[in-house]
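Take a minute with the sequence and fold tokens given here and flag any structure token that looks odd. Thanks in advance.
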Amino acid sequence: MPGTYTYPGVYIEEIPSGVRTIVGVSTSDTAFVDFFARGPVDKAVRITSFSEFERRFGGLDTRSEASYAVQQFYLNGGSVAWVVRITAGEARAATCKLYGGYGGNEVLEVSAASPGVWAASSKGGLEVGVDLKTKDPAQYFNLVVREFVNTDGGKRVLATEVHRNLSMDKTHARYAINVVNDASDFIRLKDLSLGELPAAASDADVINEPRDSDFTALGGSPSDGYEPGSTEWDNAAGEALKDGTGLLDRIAPYIFNILCIPAAARLPESSMRAVYSEAEKYCLDKRAFLILDIPYEVATKEQMIEFVEENTALRHRNAAVYFPRLEIPDVLNENRPRDVGPSGTVAGLYAQTDSLRGVWKAPAGTEAVLRGATIPVKLTDLENGALNPLGVNVLRSFPVFGGVIWGARTLDGADVQASEWKYIPVRRMALYIEESLYQGLKWVVFEPNDEPLWAQIRLNVGAFMQDLFRQGAFQGRTPREAYFVKCDKETTTPSDVSRGIVNILVGFAPLRPAEFVVIKIQQMAGQTQT
């Protein structure tokens, strides 16, 4: 902008628009907390495909309820998952040691990157080998890491890592411990020597990598900790699940929107109730939504009604429950049916519905078809009618369509509750708006709290809500009927200003699902044709 106008003519000045675009957050990034065969135990890991889950966490495991839930999540339309591996009891990593060439001193301790028997079992594991085919064999070595499985014919290598030109000099840029620990998906190293190189098992003329006979397998006493289903697991898993859920605090700037804890349904009743109760509080704080799995013993309509009546404390606006449990073909057991909770399947359909129609569309109906799963309990309309008013969403099978989700109520959606958060899409829409505005208005902090700021807030929030209105997210024919944004001297009083508070009031007219479609037919009688 020119400071002064010195000559006759046209001056151009750029004026800031005041628009700070509010971008809608994700709606269906789903967190799974459970026991897994492998993977880190101290953080939540972002996964974007089932193949990546197999690579990072070992894929399906008969002990892991959530491993099947993750498979179902991707099969039914999910895209982003946050996986949290928990262990109960002492979980230990497989290890081995590499020795020096002169005197046989211990040089390196090699440990699996994560605890568990996955790295050293009768089925396979990890092995490491050293060769000295480097630019200077007196100063550098190569380290090869292989993951293998045992077969009838010997062993089959699944994946290989090669770390070249490593040094045992702590000051060197290629110091082995730093290089390998930063780069390897399989192992971690510990320096046990005073700079001595590990010896190659064979001569230094080995080309590319050591021979099969030159590798050292990891062993020691690896452990997965307590086994799911054991008494020790039942006693310890509740706290482990709650601690694991807390690791989702560390995924910022990312967020999660849906939480699934399939292992909770296999715990004793008191532990299950405690885990789900804490999870609901956590989801409320994180503006997320919990999908509960029911115990496998709950297999009839009467048992489901009893379960709901005995767990009234679990009624919550940020949670939903589905009946019955599902059956899926278990590839680890000759494709025999396996009983699973529906949370992973349902979360995948949430994601699919959000992508195709929007978070304001109920994840239910003939579009919400269950893939890769069957419904073992066939419910009638009357049985459905007994569960729906209790806030239980029923999974049903219809001719042509197959298995579908046939309910869209939160756990606070029982008729007697008369809750404004009766329906899942209404609640999830509110959570989406809340989180989007929370993320998109951080620039407001420490701005001068007066009308210019309030006008900017109205402009930016209004633009965000208007975009949702154009997508069909609200009721109403006009923006005035669909939503409002208020931020002025009425919402923010002089007392608020003196305390550094700005109040923004946002309202919207939600789209509620057409849960009951009534068709009225009238017979016309006594008509004469003229």
User: Anything to note?
Assistant: The chain has three domains: 30-88+227-425, 91-224, 449-530. The mean pLDDT is 93.
